[in-house]
Each structure stands twice: as structure tokens, then as C-alpha cells.
Amino acid sequence: MTILVTGSAGHLGEALMRTLSAESRWVRGIDIKSSAYTDMVGSINDRTFVRQAMSGISHVIHAATLHKPHVATHDNYDFLDTNIAGTLNLVEEAVAAGVASFVFTSTFGAALTPAAGEPAAWVTEDVLPVAKNIYGVTKLAAEGLCELFARKSGLPVVILRTSRFFPESDDDPDIRNGYSAKNAQANELLHRRVDISDVVGAHLQALEKAPAIGFGRYIISATTPFSANDLAEIRRDAPHVVERLLPGAASLYASRGWKMFPSLDRVYVNERARRELGWQPRYDFRFVLDCLRDNREWRSPLALDVGSKGYHDEDFAEGPYPVG
Q1: What are the chain's domains?
Q2: Are residues 284 and 290 in contact, defined by beta-carbon separation less than 8 angstroms?
Q3: Is this prediction's pTM over 0.70?
Q4: What pLDDT digit, counting tens, does each position of 105-151 carry?
Q5: For residue 208, what are the CA distances in angstroms to 3, 152, 230?
Q6: Residue 211 half-sphere exposure, CB side, CA atoms within 13 Å?
Q7: Is the CB of residue 11 less than 8 Å from the CB of residue 165?
Q8: 143 near 106, Cβ under 8 Å?
Q9: How many CB atoms lie within 10 A of CB 115?
Q10: What tens digit of pLDDT does each residue of 238-268 get?
Q11: Residue 47, class by beta-carbon neighbours within 10 Å (0-12 exposed, 13-18 middle, 19+ buried)?
């Protein structure tokens, strides 16, 4: 049983390759860039390359993509070629090869901020994303292709909409300038972030469950301490709700010189993934507080090993991003 991992030189691709290799699983990594975890260098836009890469493959994890930070450096057709045409090549060749499961890494990449004065959004798989850039448009279109081939050709497909797991500083200048990266990312584990180790775990569970599921779409985000009853209050005063639910959080934050976001506009809900995939994420906000209390590292060893990879081959004034 050989697993194909696309995007093996990227954050998630490398994390998958590291984990699968450590488990002595048969795995083949492909990417447009060479790396220690890339077995075949080529583009998923190239149908011949994809057909060659699919030879002998029984399972596919499709993590390769152009990301949001590429919007300013690539044109729309680059996104169409990679995120849509590349995905089409992969699903068609996966069908032809008779693979047993196909897992597609997707995203929210959408405008989900409620209007001023409204409660925070409770985001489940039933919420319809509204794309705000070409990245979001192409990821949603690629999801549609995956679903089409699941329905039309019987290809077992699981789509995983992952929260943020990148280690780089936020692309929002207000967050980037107002909070350290660690502080901001710890805050995000309350509502819109997930550790890369848990993302890998979700993908491996999805590979196993896909044949029985047939087609499914799941949110992969750290387990939130909030409930739907907290949505109005976290929009008004998030620190108060956090302290009510997790007494002592404020003092632990103060000991580090950290601060909580004053308001949260959305909460990604992972309940369906935990129930149907049997996924058990470990690295949530409660874990962060436990680590702060014991003066331990709260990021996973895998996250530290993969580290920051960036998105471009050049540096910009705004860190990894060409625009603020």
C-alpha cells in the first residue's frame, strides 16, 4: 500500500512525509520543488507527470496548492492551473488507478465575519463559504471537482477544511504588530487554529475512513472551549468568557506578558470530524494553559521540526507576505 503525498516540500506535505516515513509506511512525495521529502519533482499541472506519479499508488493525500500569500505574486491563471486543473488531473488519474481513498486538503479562505454588533459565527460544515479572493474561489472549485468524482466515479473522497497551522506571523498588520506570533497563535487555538500534528492525524484517519464514508467534508480545527451560547459574549468581551470557562487563564497570560484578543468573530467547530473520523486532536487551548502552567513547550514536536517554510523565494518588508 503506497500513499501519494502532493506538495511534499510544503508545511503539511513535509509533516505528512515525516510521519508516514517514521511509521515505515510506503509513501511517495511529489512537489514542484525538490526537498528531502520529495521523491519526484514535477507539476500536478502536467498530466503525464501525474500519471507516472500515480503508478502503484493505493491512497492519495492532495496537499499541494497555491496559497493566499501567493495572490499578490501569481496571476489568476496560475491559481486555476494549480488548484483546479491540477486537482482534476489527480482525481482523474486516481480513478484510473483505482485508488482506495483520496483526501483533499482544503481551507475556509472565505469572508465569514458577521456584521458589527452581531454574535460570532458558529462555523460548521453546513456553513457555505463565500470566497474573497482567487485562492478561495479555486479551492472551493477544487472541492466541487472532488465531490463530482466521488459521486460520478465512486472515488472515495474526504475533504478536510483545515484551520490555520502555519507558523509565520499573521498577515493582518494589526495582529502582527500588536501581538507576538506565539501569543496570537495561542489565542487562535480558541477558535481558528490547529497544530500541524493534529492536522496530520486527521489526514491519516481520513485515509482509513474514506472507503466507508464515500464522500465527506470535515472541519479540522482545535477543539474550542466555547459553545453556541457564548457567541454573543465572545464578540463583545472574549477575555471575560475565557476566564469564566478557564479560570486562571488571565494570570498565566499576564506572567508571559501576553494578552487575549478582545473580540472573536468566528468559531470553527470540529465535532463532526471527531465523531465520524474518530479524530482526537490533542493540541488545543487547554493544552496551552497546561503548558504555560508547567513552563513547557505547547507546540508539537512535529511543528517544531517542520518549522517555518515561507511561501516565496524572496523576503518582503512584511515578513513572508508581499503585502500587508
Answers
A1: 2-178+192-223+267-281 (3.40.50.720)
A2: no
A3: yes
A4: 998 766 578 888 899 999 999 998 887 888 888 989 999 999 999 99
A5: 12, 21, 35
A6: 7
A7: yes
A8: yes
A9: 5
A10: 999 999 999 999 999 999 999 999 999 999 9
A11: middle
